[in-house]
Amino acid sequence: MKRGPRTLAVILSLVVMAGGTITVWSGDSHAQAKYPTRAIELVVANPPGGSIDLTARVAAAFLNKRWGVPVNVINKPGGKAIPGSYEVFNAAPNGYTMFNDSAGTSEFLVVSERNLPFDIMQRTYIGTHSAVSYILATPANSPYKTLQGLIAEAKNNPQNLRYASLAGTTSIELAIRQFFSAIGADISKTKAVLCDGGAAVVTLTAGGHVSLGSAGTSGWLPSIKAETVQPLFITSKERNPLLPEVPTSTEVGLPTVTATNWFGISGPPKLPTHVVEVWDAALKDMAKDPGVIAQFKNIGAVPLYLNGQETRKFITDNLEDLKKFWN
Predict the structure, then answer these.
(1) Residues 144, 194: one domain?
(2) pTM of model > 0.70
(3) Which of 18, 164, 181, 304 could serve as a FRET partner for 232 with CA atoms 20 to 30 Å apart?
(4) Are 16 and 66 in contact (CB under 8 A)?
């Protein structure tokens, strides 16, 4: 394969608008509708503590302050994120039940689940607010002291390599698959060691139980500082300010290793235009807010603004690339 999914880290920027009005017609009369005027539920179809949850809380705090109404993060994990996604999909299209979306709850869900009870692409995409990239790392005591040494082993003796695997369609797993594809090595001849999340990937790698692991920047920080792992590169186009010494995939000659998880906002189908406009303006302002940028940095994320149309196109483009890794 010659290229990987287009990286989200190439377009970074984001926002908020305090409110909006629009004329609502009822027969021959019309009235002004103000939004928002009451509490908003921002559903996260994942457990607390992960990147999607943490970025949602940063966004909610900003929106709460901006709009003067509560924006409450509601965690509804389980069922591969399908129940939480489905609940928002079926919510009243009034802007008071919204979804903190991600690559995992959009294109990855489309690829991994063929019989969903709803059409993901029918939801109303508002836009993105942040993204995280991934660092590939080896144990500090790895016999492969350089990236080139690891690549040589992967190509010549792949059966000797063990990598930490989430087993499903995730951005973390995508980074590993892109890496093997980029170097021309057969991942099927390696040994996948199954684990249940990014924290387990870090633990297995730091403990020397695998030859290679992929996880988000913030997840690696303690192990990198403790020098129990050796970071190889990050999948973003630019270096991460938390670990400025870690080169990018492009800098090490692997520009197609671009796996990135984006986070953003979507809502039920047929969300009114004035609601979409208020949220879009909010995301745009948020991307430029110094306080938000600092909070994202602390959790290993970067601000990322794409509007709804750009987000939909990005997802559609990515779907074709993802199908090459997961048939």
Answers:
(1) yes
(2) yes
(3) 304
(4) yes
CATH number at 159 reads 3.40.190.10
**pLDDT tens track for 173-184:** 999 999 999 999
124 and 13 in a single domain? The answer is: yes
Which residues face 303 on adjacent strands? 130
Residue type for position 34: K
Which domain, by its residues, includes 161?
133-234
Query: Measuring CA to CA, which residue among 156, 157, 137, 158 is closest to residue 147?
Result: 137
Extract the tokens encoding 145. Answer: 């002291």
Task: Please name which of 244, 247, 279, 233 lies closest in space to residue 96, comparing C-alpha atoms.
Answer: 279
Contact 318, 174 (CB under 8 A): no
> CATH number for the domain including 279?
3.40.190.150
Omega prior to 244 cis, within 30 of 0: no
Per the structure, how many domains does the chain have? Answer: 2
Do 111 and 154 share a domain, yes or no? Answer: no
Task: List, for the chain, all residue ranges whose pLDDT scores fall below the cut of 50.
Answer: 1-32
What residue has token string 């924006």?
Answer: 71
User: Are 184 and 165 in a shared domain?
Assistant: yes
Per-residue model confidence as pLDDT tens digits over 257-297: 999 999 999 999 999 999 999 999 999 999 999 999 999 99
Tell me the CA distances in angstroms from 34 to 15, 97, 126, one per residue in order: 19, 16, 18
